[in-house]
Amino acid sequence: MPDFSHIDPSGKPAMVDVSAKSSTRRSARARAIVVLPAIVLEQLQNQDLHLPKGPVFQTAILAGVLAAKRTGDLIPLCHPLGLEHCQVDIFLNTEQEVVVDCTAVLTAKTGVEMEALTGASIAALTIYDMCKALSHDIRIREIMLMEKTGGKRDFKRD
Fold first, then answer.
1. Looking at the predicted structure, is the pLDDT value of residue 1 above 70?
2. Which of 14-18, 20-24, 46-50 has the largest mean confidence?
3. Predicted model pTM
4. Which CATH number fits domain 25-149: 3.30.360.10, 3.30.70.640, 3.40.640.10, 3.10.20.600?
5. Per the residue annotation, which of 129, 137, 154, 158 is the catalytic one?
6. Of 148, 132, 154, 152, which Cα lies nearest the Cα of 31?
7. CA–CA separation, 92 vs 72, rounded Å?
């Protein structure tokens, strides 16, 4: 059974020591699903994705990128990383749910899963914030890692 990586032998929280690791190219893509009620979807479509607070998806994209860049400041024990690329994509799926994908890439000694997850989460929260005046019946669900490459092992969700 593997041990938790952020707990030292005495049981105290500890940042993982990556000093002996080699830098490799690493990438991660995370996803959040935002379920909007019909009234919000109609307003977004009628207003060409702009609401009184401004352009919803464009603002969420910026918030997601900014959050991914600040992950080390937000989550204890995360290494501060200089991302080489971060992209947030937002689209409606066939069920009329908003899909938020955040991809983060860098060459480093540690992975970027938390940056991708943070970017997707904050972009989804920004959509909620910008749309809540129309309805509070908004749900954010299924925040998850979709895939990662580099490091000890790759991962891809089916």
1. no
2. 20-24
3. 0.91
4. 3.30.70.640
5. 129
6. 148
7. 30
